[in-house]
């Protein structure tokens, strides 16, 4: 599903799940989510959606919306390509990324 996206990979000591973070470079909630993952030393990959070409961005958002049946807002996190979370809610993240 994400084969056309150039993710940045961050290695942590906790590597239980495949975590893909879709963020905006200007988003404070996205930064908080990324810092949370870093503070917990969780391995994850991310992409700044506002930095990819417009057509690719539109296609990506449509695929995410269709697959997970959620409105796309940021941060948008996909865990093991089966669970999606919208926004940074630490309790929700605790239960899915740890």
How would you describe the overall organization of this protein?
By secondary structure, the protein is of the alpha+beta class. Helix content is 36%, strand content 21%. A five-stranded mixed β-sheet has the order 1-3-2-4-5, with helices on one face. The model has no long low-confidence stretch (mean pLDDT 95).
Notable characteristics:
98 residues; alpha+beta; Glutaredoxin; 5-stranded mixed sheet; 3 helices; 5 strands; globular
Summarize the structure.
The chain is α+β, with helices and mostly antiparallel strands.
Strand runs, count: 5
The H/E string reads EEHEHEEH
How much helix, percentage-wise, in residues? 25-40%
User: How does the overall form come out from the CA principal axes?
Assistant: globular
* Count of runs of 4 or more consecutive helical residues: 3
What are the SSEs and their pairings?
Blueprint: E1 8-10, E2 19-23, H1 28-39, E3 44-48, H2 54-68, E4 76-79, E5 83-86, H3 90-97
Parallel strand pairs: 2-3
Antiparallel strand pairs: 1-3, 2-4, 4-5
């Amino acid at each position: 599903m994400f084969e056309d996206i150039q993710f940045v990979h961050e290695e942590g000591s906790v590597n239980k799940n495949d975590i893909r973070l879709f963020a905006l470079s200007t988003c404070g909630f996205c930064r908080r989510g990324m810092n949370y993952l870093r503070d917990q030393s969780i391995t994850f990959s991310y992409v700044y959606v506002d930095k990819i070409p417009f057509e690719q961005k539109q296609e990506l958002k449509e695929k995410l919306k269709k697959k997970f049946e959620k409105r796309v807002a940021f941060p948008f996190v996909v865990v093991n390509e089966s669970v999606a979370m919208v926004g940074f809610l630490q309790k929700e993240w605790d239960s899915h990324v740890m």
